[in-house]
Every structure is written in structure tokens, then in C-alpha cells.
TrEMBL record:
Residues 751-831 form the Glycoside hydrolase family domain. This is Beta-galactosidase. It comes from the Bacteria. Residues 234-322 form the Glycoside hydrolase family 2 immunoglobulin-like beta-sandwich domain. Residues 859-884 are annotated as: Disordered. Residues 100-208 form the Glycosyl hydrolases family 2 sugar binding domain. Residues 1-20 form the signal peptide. Keywords: Glycosidase, Hydrolase, Signal.
Length: 911
């Protein structure tokens, strides 16, 4: 095995990380891989690569409207009066509830002016958009360079004809999200049960290589080829040997024949047991060549949801020189590295066979739409990652990409955190005429080419969701998937009741004990089954009243109905219980839907999430957590849980429900003797039944103790026991007088605070009493303000944001700037008074982004409608004044407490 020094440097740098026991599962996953991929590969350190990536997210000028100014595509057009935005951009800051087609529909324009580095001369340079919604047209330096139809797959532009290295360059993008039946999904947005918004709503990059380079699979257009195609051929659990294949396509853009050698190396995160091979390749001028390199891995560490082991696959292309000259770094032509997983999947009538062993449990997860509160679809990478973390913590092991390919950052997170993915092509209840069919076929090919290297991909769904398509369509798109992935482990899925389902390896349906309309009446051809959507329960498809659609701020009683409905219900619907009880051939199902999301054809958002649109958990989130394993190798998706589903309000139920995956639960009420109950299960069904303690919460007893000077004794304490030992604990107290505003940053493990101008975080303000207990029954309005290199996402001209408190909390969104520094967020009540809660302050530091970005400083994006970021270098006198004001506010609050105590004693005396 002859491995180059540069090759080893890349492998060592990618393997460097702290010991696993010093990090959480999510942190280990993030740090050991590099946070996010670019066009399917990792960004490598400058000293180890001949391929360079530049961020193009920052510094775009934006215009919205059907009447664009004359000459808008020209390089010399004056766009100084246009709004400045950064990507991802969704064309507008949406209301919290943006269903019913309240979003803008129509064309928007983006212009980006930048100076291209002089060393791009002589290189091959491409502009890579991860997603532009709808129809898009792209101009480079005044000339039209590309046109694209569809919003969910990459748009790639070869810049060789137009880019001017060392000079000013202008890119213009027109994006139009208007209704158009000529491309998927095709159905008018007014008739869609989800929402797609607009703009350049995913990341953009400039990728530079030499004239001899590894191609991109979506750009190359090669069936079952292009770029790097990794697959697992076989895996022997007995010998722990795995056989994999690495197919590599290399392009030669020169006028001469090129003799090269292609080198493939695989290392695990700790750099042990590396395996590498080299293959020669001769490429004619202005052509491509391909090699397929087999590798045999010893002591293989296979990928699975509960143990998502990943390897670094590094591929290098070298000039075919001999002797000592073969290792000359100057002869390195191109290189790419990516994270891959070694795993085999078989889906049989016995269930899911993963890495040669029958998966011991039903595979249960959720569907995912990509929108986020206020952002719409323009969700940055950090929130993509956080979504995967939250879903994995809930115990989910599989995600169906409803109803389109997801953001690459989300796919990266699924690989690294242990979430299987069912990749679906764009489409929903619509078949169009004209070029529609051909564009569906192209989408199917492109989604396989983009996502084929992800170990998380379990199945492909090439059909159009719930659509009456032509008779030959189902077989054709199924065959396209197998053309693009002609190797073991390729499975396609289709509704059992749909035309052409006989061609598919896996059929969608409900178990015979589940939904009475969609349950399996007669099993077809001994095929395996999966439930693509379970849990929803609406009265009519016009009204959409439901026991499962519950807004978080409606409170604990409705949320409890939803939680119990998802676990087990008396209605004839599929639940966690019925999926567990299903026969072996029915190997799992996906909840509809883990997050509240916006919809086109209905005025109400979909409220069926176990988290709301800001990703704040509902009671059902903890119900799902109670079904996860007590312990597994992937600590992120397991661990003991005990959760008291009672907020001790005057309106809370007397019967106290506890969700837990422990062996038993002890509940202590107001310091009394604990009562222990076993966590039960239903035979061949729900594994952990919620534990109910009758009449454990009594508001009048709370009142009696509080008035008797024993206010501190009022509490519910639950302890989870495994093997007779207490392993986890949850305490709930009734909230008292609202005294404080507490701020917290919703930031999951492994997510960096990167000053890249794109990342957005939720800052949540909670109204609490003096002990820190959240006061759920509170209707304050919170005013957020910010200082430092970040901005609040707001449409207020002064840059502040007013948010109502709902169920004890008010979230605000903060976008990080392009310069690192300290960010300070302050939250106060809208109508201050001497008896009002004390303001909250949160500070955090951001770090420099490791990505080179090309932009003009005067075009850095700000909030919509003139919101501004306060400078981070405020004068010391101003800082001292603010600190004194804060201290005075605290003193006034303490004096108010003394006065309040006196008033309370007087009231008690005269009562």
C-alpha cells in the first residue's frame, strides 16, 4: 500500500479529536467529521488540498416584485438601493403562523458583486447552489449562464466562460416560486398540505479545482457514476471483514491525454487499520475516465442507528510519475474526502436485517418538513443539525423526507447521529402535462446521485406522494433508481394501494390493527411493509379538527390528549402500540409529523408536532422519549427518562401521569412517603405504558401548605429506578409570583456559534418565579434587544422584537454576524412597572468561521425592513451606565419583595 504524505496528512487531520469519553455523542459526531459537507465532501485544510471552497452566502442585494428594473441582469446595474441579505434567504420574514398561502409568491432577484481571487485563473470554477426555490435563471457578468426548474436539488453553474479572476464579478439570480405545473411538485400552493416559500434558501459555494479533477455526480450526468460512488458490497459479522467499492470519475479539461493514478484510502476516526489502494487511469483530452477500486476492511466497525460508526474516505488524483517523484506534492491534481459508513441492509418478510442481523425492534421515527418558524424553508445548517439531534433524543431512528430531498446538512447529521432516511422525490397529489414527467425522472436520478453515499439512506421513494399517475410511471421510476444504484441494498417503496406497487420491494400500509381505511387487507406477494405516516386523526380534510393537532400554548390538558393518542388510542388508528404489535414483516413506521409546520391549503399550521415550529417540546416529546432504550452505544438516542406531565397549576389534573422508560417510578408528593409503581407494557405492543398516580395533585392542599408557611414543601418528585437503583429524577413545583425573565440559548451539543453571517439560534425568554419555576399561565409581552455582532430577526425599524409569552415562554431568533465577538441579548416586559418581573440578560461568544467567504462589506445582510445590529464596541461609560441601571432594577425588585410580604401578612390577618 503506497500512500502519499499529503494523503496521510488529510487522514490524520480528519481523525484528530478529543477522547470520546470527554464529549457527548453529538459533540463527538460533529468534531470528528467537520460540521457540514460541501457538495457531498468535507472541506479540507488548505495545506492538504488542491480543491478550494469559498462561501458565497454573504453579501447579496435583493429585490422583490414582478416589475424588475430595466437592465437588472447587467454587470453595471446600480443595485445600491436594494436590500442587503445573506443566504439562506427566504425572501421575507414570515409571521409565526404563515399557513394559508400568506407568503409571497412571485419572482425575486438577487445580485452579488465580489472580487474573485487572482489565483482562480487557469482553474475550473463552479458555482454550487444547494437549492433555489422554483424556477431559477442565473447570469454571470451580464450573460445568461443557467436555467433550472425545481427547488430541492442542486443548481450547478460552470463559470469558465465568464469568471474574471482578480477582478470584480457580478452574479444575478432570478428565483420565481409562482405556481407552475411544468415541474414537481406542480400542484398550486393553494392546494398543498405543506408550504414552500421562495428565494435562494440553501447554501451557495464557489468550488475551484484544476483542469484535471474529480467530477460532481449531479453535474456529470452519468448513470450510476460521476464523482465518487461508495457502496458496501458485503459484510461478514463472523470475520469482521467488509468489502466496499469506490468508483471514481475523473475529468480531463486539457488538450492533452492525461495519465494519472487514483488513490483511495479509508480510515476510522482514530486512524487505526487504514486500508488503501491505487488504480491507474488514462483520460483522453476533454473527456472523462473512471476507475472502480475495491477495498477490504478488517476489524470493520459497521454503521447502525445505535452505533453510527463512520470512516473517512479520501480520494486523490496524482500525475502518473514514478520513483521518488511519485510523492511530489506538486503532482497532486485533485482530492476529496467524505464520511462514509460500512453497512448492509436487507428488508425481508422477517423484518429489517442490518449488518447481517435481524434488527431487534420496530424502526419508528417521523416525517420531516423543512420549515422553521418565521424562517420558512430558509433554515441554516446549524438548525438542520439541531433538528436531527432533537429527533434522535426523542428515540427516533428513521426519518422520511416529506415530500422532497432534505438539506445536505440534515443528511450529514443523520449519518453522524444515527437516523435512517427514506429519501422521497418532490411531489404531492399531482400529475402534470408537458415537460412535467421528464422533470420528475430527472429529479429521481439527481436525488440518488446526491444522496447515494449516505449510510443513513435506507430506502428510496421515487413515486409522487398520494398521486394518481399513469400506469407505466411507477415501474419506470423504480427502474431509474436501480439504474442509478445497481448494487446490493437498494430498496424502493410505494403505497400498497397505488397503481404499479407490484414492482416495489417495500409497500406502505398500516398494520391490520391500525387505521381501518389504510390497514393491510390482504398481504401482497409476501413483501415487507412500512407505515409512511401514522398518528394523525382529523375529523374532515376541510376542518382538520383533531385529537393529535395541538398547539403547545393550548396547555397541558390538550397536550396530554395528543401524547396518549400517539402512544395508544381507543380510535382505530395506527400508534406506537399497534406498530410494536405488528407482524415481523411490518418493520416500522413514521409519525406524521415531529414538528409543527406551515401549510398552503389550510389557514391553520399543522399542530401535530411533538415540538412546535420553534422546536419547543410538547408533552408528546417526552412520551416518545419514554419509549427509547434505557441504554445503547449511541447515548444520544437512549438513556433513562422520567418526566412528570403536570405543571401544578390550579387547572392541572388531579391524576399525575409520569412518562418513563425505567423499570419503575417513585412519586413523592409534598415531601410525603414515595409511592413506587412498575412501568408496565402491553403484550407485544407498547413497551412502556405511562404511569398514573391517582389524585396526586391537589390545588387546595397546595393552598393550605403555602398559607401555613410550608410553601417550599409543595412539589412533585419522580425518581426513575433501573435494577432497583435511582438513575434519574424530575421535580415539579407550582409557580408563584412572576419575578424574573430567564433567557436561554437553544443550542444543541456539537453546534458551534460560528460567525458566518448565516447561522440562526433561538433565544427563549421564560417568565419565572423567584425560585426559577416557569410560570406557564402568564400573558406578558417580551421586548428583546441585542448588542454585538449579531441581529434579531425582526421587522421593527429599531431592531427590537416584541414577542408574546405563550405557555411560559417567548422565543426570538438571532442571526450571527460575520465578525466574532460577544453577543448580549436583553429581554424586558413591554409595559414595565415597579411590580413587574426583572429583565433577563444573556451573553455568549461567537467564533470565527473557518470558511473563506467572498463578499463586499457594504452588502452584508441585515434584518428585513431596516433592523440594525448594535455595534459591539460600545463606550465604557455607556456600559457602566447600563450595569448601574441593571443593579438599580434588582435593588428596586428586592424592595418590592419586602413590601409585598408586608401586604400579604396584612391580607392574611384581616382574612
Amino acid at each position: 500500500m503506497n500512500i502519499s504524505p499529503v494523503f496521510w496528512a488529510a487522514a490524520v487531520l480528519s481523525a484528530m479529536s478529543a477522547p470520546a469519553d470527554q464529549k457527548t455523542a453529538a459533540e463527538e459526531a460533529a468534531s470528528s467529521t467537520g460540521q457540514y459537507s460541501v457538495a457531498g465532501a468535507l472541506r479540507l485544510p488548505e495545506q492538504t488540498t488542491k480543491r478550494h471552497v469559498y462561501g458565497m452566502n454573504v453579501g447579496w442585494k435583493f429585490f422583490k416584485g414582478k416589475d424588475a428594473p430595466q437592465g437588472v441582469t447587467g454587470a453595471d446595474f446600480d443595485d445600491s438601493s436594494w436590500q442587503s441579505v445573506n443566504l439562506p434567504d427566504g425572501t421575507e420574514l414570515l409571521p409565526e403562523e404563515a399557513s394559508g398561502c400568506s407568503n409571497y409568491q412571485g419572482p425575486v432577484w438577487y445580485r452579488k458583486t465580489f472580487t474573485a481571487p487572482a489565483d482562480l485563473k487557469g482553474k475550473r470554477n463552479t458555482l454550487y447552489f444547494e437549492g433555489i426555490m422554483g424556477k431559477s435563471e442565473i447570469w454571470v457578468n451580464g450573460e445568461k449562464a443557467a436555467e433550472h426548474f425545481g427547488g430541492y436539488l442542486p443548481v450547478i453553474v460552470n463559470l469558465d466562460k465568464w469568471l474574471k479572476p482578480g477582478q470584480k464579478n457580478v452574479i444575478v439570480v432570478k428565483a420565481d416560486n409562482s405556481n407552475d405545473s411544468s415541474y414537481p411538485p406542480g400542484k398550486p400552493q393553494e392546494s398543498l398540505d405543506f408550504a414552500y416559500f421562495g428565494g435562494i434558501y440553501r447554501d451557495a459555494y464557489l468550488i475551484s479545482t484544476g483542469p484535471v479533477y474529480i467530477t460532481d455526480p449531479n453535474e456529470a450526468g452519468t448513470v450510476a457514476g460521476g464523482g465518487i460512488f461508495f457502496r458496501t458490497e458485503s459484510l461478514d459479522p463472523r470475520t469482521r471483514k467488509g468489502k466496499v467499492g469506490v468508483k471514481v470519475q475523473v475529468a480531463n479539461n486539457t488538450d492533452k491525454e492525461q495519465k494519472v493514478r487514483v488513490q483511495a484510502l479509508m480510515t476510522d476516526p482514530k486512524g487505526v487499520d487504514p486500508v488503501g489502494e491505487t488504480a491507474p487511469l488514462v483520460i483522453p483530452p476533454h473527456s472523462t475516465g473512471e476507475v472502480d477500486i475495491p477495498l477490504v476492511i478488517s476489524n470493520v466497525r459497521p454503521w447502525s442507528p445505535d452505533n453510527p460508526n463512520l470512516y473517512t474516505l479520501s480520494v486523490e488524483v496524482w500525475k502518473a510519475a514514478g520513483g521518488a517523484d511519485a510523492k511530489n506534492p506538486a503532482h497532486l491534481l485533485d482530492n476529496r474526502s467524505m464520511r462514509v459508513g460500512v453497512r448492509t441492509v436487507e428488508i425481508t418478510e422477517k423484518g429489517l436485517v442490518l449488518n447481517g442481523s435481524l434488527f431487534p425492534e420496530k424502526l419508528i421515527g417521523g416525517n420531516r418538513h423543512q420549515d422553521f418558524a418565521r424562517l420558512g424553508n430558509a433554515v441554516p445548517n446549524n438548525l438542520q443539525w439541531q433538528d436531527a439531534v432533537k429527533l434522535r433524543k426523542a428515540g427516533m431512528r428513521v426519518i422520511r423526507s416529506a415530500h422532497y430531498p432534505q438539506d445536505p446538512a440534515f443528511m450529514d447529521a443523520c449519518d453522524r447521529l444515527g437516523l435512517f432516511v427514506i429519501v422521497a422525490t418532490p411531489g404531492w397529489q399531482f400529475w402534470g402535462k408537458g415537460p412535467f414527467a421528464d422533470r420528475v425522472y430527472d429529479d429521481v436520478r439527481q436525488m440518488v446521485r446526491r444522496d447515494r453515499n449516505h449510510p443513513s439512506v435506507m430506502m428510496w421513494e421515487p413515486i409522487l406522494n398520494e398521486t394518481h399517475y399513469p400506469k407505466d410511471f411507477a415501474k419506470k421510476v423504480r427502474d431509474l433508481v436501480h439504474e442509478e444504484y445497481p448494487y446490493p441494498g437498494c430498496y424502493t417503496a410505494c403505497d400498497a394501494v397505488a397503481q404499479g406497487s407490484e414492482h416495489y420491494e417495500v409497500l406502505y400500509a398500516h398494520p391490520s390493527t391500525g387505521d381501518k381505511h389504510w390497514s393491510i387487507k390482504e398481504r401482497k406477494n409476501n413483501k415487507p411493509y412500512f407505515t409512511r405516516e401514522f398518528g394523525d386523526n382529523v375529523d374532515t380534510w376541510s376542518a382538520h379538527n383533531s385529537t393529535s393537532r395541538v398547539a403547545r400554548h393550548w396547555g397541558e390538558a390538550p397536550m396530554m390528549v395528543q401524547a396518549l393518542h400517539y402512544l395508544k388510542t381507543s380510535f382505530p388508528y395506527t400508534t406506537y402500540d399497534t406498530l410494536n404489535a405488528a407482524p415481523a414483516y411490518h418493520f416500522g413506521g413514521c409519525l406524521w409529523h415531529p414538528f409543527d409546520h406551515q401549510r398552503g391549503y389550510h389557514p391553520d399550521p399543522f399542530y401535530g408536532g411533538i415540538l412546535d415550529a420553534f422546536r419547543q417540546p410538547k408533552t408528546s416529546y417526552y412520551a416518545f422519549m419514554s419509549q427509547r432504550p434505557q441504554k445503547s452505544q449511541n447515548a444520544l438516542g437512549s438513556g433513562p427518562v422520567v418526566y412528570i406531565a403536570n405543571e401544578c397549576t390550579p387547572f392541572s389534573p388531579e391524576d399525575v401521569t409520569v412518562f418513563s422508560n425505567c423499570d419503575s417510578v417513585r412519586l413523592s408528593v409534598n415531601g410525603g412517603a414515595p409511592v413506587e409503581k412498575k412501568v408496565g407494557s402491553y403484550p407485544n405492543g407498547l413497551k412502556r405504558v405511562p404511569v398514573v398516580f391517582p389524585k396526586a395533585w391537589d390545588f387546595m392542599e397546595n393552598k393550605k401548605l403555602a398559607r401555613g408557611g410550608k410553601e417550599g414543601a409543595v412539589k412533585l418528585v419522580a425518581e426513575g429506578l433501573i435494577g432497583g437503583k435511582v438513575v434519574t429524577r424530575h421535580e415539579v413545583r407550582p409557580s408563584r409570583r412572576a419575578e424574573k425573565i430567564r433567557l436561554r440559548l437553544d443550542r444543541e451539543e456539537g453546534v458551534e456559534l460560528s460567525a458566518n453571517g448565516s447561522d440562526v439560534f433561538a433565544v427563549v425568554a421564560e417568565v419565572t418565579d423567584g425560585r426559577g419555576t416557569v410560570k406557564r399561565l402568564n400573558d406578558e409581552e417580551i421586548v428583546f434587544s441585542i448588542e454585538g455582532p449579531a441581529e434579531l430577526l425582526t421587522d421593527s425599524p429599531d431592531g427590537t422584537l416584541v414577542q408574546p409569552v405563550k405557555w411560559g415562554s417567548a422565543p426570538a431568533l438571532v442571526r450571527l454576524g460575520t465578525q466574532p465577538g460577544t453577543v448580549t441579548v436583553k429581554a424586558s416586559v413591554k409595559h414595565p412597572g415597579s411590580q413587574k418581573p426583572v429583565s433577563g440578560v444573556l451573553k455568549f461568544d461567537t467564533k470565527a468561521s473557518g470558511l473563506k467567504m467572498l463578499f463586499q462589506e457594504d452588502a452584508v445582510g441585515k434584518s428585513r425592513k431596516g433592523g440594525k445590529t448594535q455595534p459591539s464596541s460600545a463606550g465604557t461609560a455607556s456600559e457602566r451606565e447600563k450595569a448601574l441601571q441593571l443593579e438599580l432594577e434588582k435593588v428596586r425588585h428586592e424592595l418590592n419583595n419586602l413590601r409585598n410580604d408586608k401586604v400579604s401578612r396584612q391580607q392574611s390577618h384581616f382574612e
